[in-house]
Amino acid sequence: MSRRPMMAGNWKMNNTYGEAVVLAQEISNRYEPRWSDRMDVVVCPPYIDLKPVSTVLEFDKSHIAVGAQNVYWEASGAYTGEISVPMLKEVGCTYCIVGHSERRGLFGETNEDVNRKVKALIGGGISPIICVGESLAVREEGTTDEFVCAQVKAAFAGLADHQAAKCVVAYEPIWAIGTGRTATPEQAEAVCAAIRATVAEMFGDQVAENMRVLYGGSMNPGNVEGLMAQPNIDGGLIGGAALKADSFEQLVKACF
Ligand code: PEP
């Protein structure tokens, strides 16, 4: 596979400041230079943990990137409770998750919001990890590809080719997130291939060929191999299994 694999850990709303430092240190202790030679490893802690986590990694010279889990599209102003792209940039973020199904489902994030966030991130030099994925109802109805590809089109709307090229897409079927129920490699591959075809329609074959498409949804050391063997799956966005350094390390090593 010519694309550089990526393993990104989404810590969600887990780990206090002190706990985040411990987990970052445990992951950093396992870091080997071949990780960053061959792939991108990313950890996405809660906002308040971004600075301490990036400090630990920088101090150890572990080339593990730090990402946020969300962002607001305005750069500054009267937006109580929000965090902007320049704020993320200054604490060392190079990636940011957008459109996670928990943000869409629990906090009302729309396709339009996702698009605004993607544009703000790209404008500020941070790579968006754009999450898309269908509910169980949509899957059972047989409209998964249409639903997911519409989310992809909305997230990328109005971008130029060189801007789209900065993005990563994560296919995360909602029914597989935190449930222990993983998509089969074949199910995940089919949707990831449809996502890549949509990117090709919008931005051409080269952008599509180079774009990382991750799978997320109960990925763990026991199922990672089958998923990573698929030609259109370039890595994982990991929730539960990213909260323990041992399992995260195993997932990283499955990319070699
Ligand atoms: C996620 O939240 O992005 C995720 C994939 O979670 P889990 O791995 O726990 O299913």
Please give a structural write-up:
The protein is an alpha/beta fold and 256 residues long. It has a single domain, classed as Alpha-Beta Barrel (TIM Barrel). It contains 13 helices and 8 strands. It has an 8-stranded parallel β-sheet. Helix 1 runs parallel beside helix 3 (50-60), helix 6 (111-123) packs across helix 8 (144-156) and helix 8 (144-156) packs across helix 10 (185-203). The radius of gyration is 17 Å and the shape is globular. The chain starts with 5 loop residues before the first strand and ends with a helix. The relative contact order is 0.15. The site of phosphoenolpyruvate has 13 residues, from strand 8.
Give a quick summary of the entry.
This protein has one domain: Aldolase class I (TIM Barrel, Alpha-Beta Barrel), CATH 3.20.20.
What's the structural blueprint in terms of helices and strands?
Layout: E1 6-10, H1 17-30, H2 33-38, E2 40-44, H3 50-60, E3 65-68, H4 85-90, E4 93-98, H5 101-107, H6 111-123, E5 127-132, H7 136-141, H8 144-156, H9 161-164, E6 168-171, H10 185-203, H11 205-210, E7 213-215, H12 224-228, E8 235-238, H13 245-253
Parallel strand pairs: 1-2, 1-8, 2-3, 3-4, 4-5, 5-6, 6-7
Phosphoenolpyruvate binds next to β8.
Q: At the third CATH level, what is the topology name?
A: TIM Barrel
The CATH superfamily is known as Aldolase class I
Query: Reading side by side through the largest sheet, how are the strands ordered?
Result: 7-6-5-4-3-2-1-8
CATH architecture term:
Alpha-Beta Barrel
Sheet of most strands? 8 strands, parallel
CATH class: Alpha Beta
Percent range for helical residues? 40-55%
| Amino-to-carboxy terminus distance | 11 Å
Report the bound ligands by name, code or SMILES.
phosphoenolpyruvate
What structural class do helix, strand and pairing data support? alpha/beta
- The 3D shape can be described as globular
Q: Could you report the average pLDDT, rounded to the nearest whole number? A: 97
Give the strand content.
5-15%
Low-confidence stretches: none
Radius of gyration: 17 Å
